[in-house]
Design brief:
Strand order of the largest sheet: 1-2-3-4-5-6-7-8
CATH topology: TIM Barrel
Structural class: alpha/beta
CATH superfamily: Divalent-metal-dependent TIM barrel enzymes
Radius of gyration: 18 Å
CATH architecture: Alpha-Beta Barrel
Distance between the termini: 6 Å
Number of domains: 1
Number of strands: 8
Order of helices and strands: EHEHEHEHEHEHHEHEH
Shape: globular
């Protein structure tokens, strides 16, 4: 593959958070996706003081911030109904996410659709579409794109995509989630949705139901098959590591979690060619 930037998700790195920029630079990475944080901590990445620190770290270590992830949607439903406390939290987060992305110079807002935000019925779909439309419109004013990461099958995501109906809305592909959560073959998802993908994706692996728990290619998610498919279809853009290097069970594979990070980078570079 050509024109690939290798990065990582800050929540997977040892000593994540503010240390992630320095860690990424030391590992030779090009980019980072940053988590926006949790509501109970008032979404740290949205706070001006924290943003200044991140911008200083970026300038110091020359790391690109390629995305911000609204990971709290795992806990708070994006499709919360109007009139509920959760609804107010969701819409406040959407507004703050756009401002944060603009301030940090980030071109992608990644929106997970798992756990609390998984779309399970028509009402969930309706409220999710409204939230995505607002986010796309607000982000689009600043040239920022929005991508949903989920485990929908091809038909389900195409329905969501058509209903959102915004030119800056995309799929955020992940190399393990589809198999882990639904038993889908990743290349089947790519065959059906590749034209709708953004130019970023997550790679991770795991075995026996473990999320992000194995070095790339050593789990059961068919990592190398996915990479071959992407190569054959001339994928360009960002490939972001999302293994959890200092968490169980992956951390048991080495005394030093940084060795695991370096090994995954080596594996990924070999797979890219």
């Amino acid at each position: 593959m050509k024109n690939i930037k290798i990065g990582a998700c800050d929540w997977g790195l040892p000593g994540n958070g503010l240390y992630a920029t320095q860690i990424a630079a030391a590992a030779g990475l090009d980019a980072l996706s940053l988590k926006i944080g949790l509501h109970e901590f008032d979404y740290p990445l949205t706070q001006p003081e924290m943003q200044k620190i991140y911008l200083n770290e970026q300038q110091k270590y020359s790391i690109e911030y390629c995305a911000i992830a609204l990971n709290d949607f795992d806990n708070i439903p994006m499709h919360a109904r109007k009139g509920t406390k959760a609804y107010d939290i969701v819409w406040d987060l959407l507004k703050r996410a756009v401002h944060t992305a603009k301030t940090l110079g980030v071109q992608m807002i990644q929106v997970p659709g798992f756990a609390a935000s998984e779309i399970k019925n028509e009402e969930d779909l309706k409220y999710s579409v409204r939230a995505f439309q607002y986010l796309c419109d607000a982000a689009g004013e600043h040239g920022i794109s929005v991508a949903g990461e989920n485990v929908m099958n091809v038909k389900e995501f195409r329905t969501l995509y058509d209903m959102v109906d915004r030119k800056n809305f995309y799929l955020y592909f992940d190399s393990q989630n589809y198999y882990l959560n639904r038993g889908y073959r990743e290349t089947d998802i790519l065959e059906g949705l590749y034209p709708l993908m953004c130019n970023q994706l997550h790679v991770k692996d795991g075995a026996d139901g473990a999320l992000s728990g194995s070095l790339l290619g050593t789990g059961d998610s068919r990592f190398f098959e996915t990479m071959t498919w992407l190569d054959q279809h001339s994928y360009t853009g960002y490939i972001l590591l999302e293994n959890y290097y200092d968490q169980m069970p992956l951390r048991t594979q080495a005394e030093n979690p940084y060795d695991l990070l370096r090994e995954d980078i080596k594996i990924l570079k070999t797979a890219i060619g």
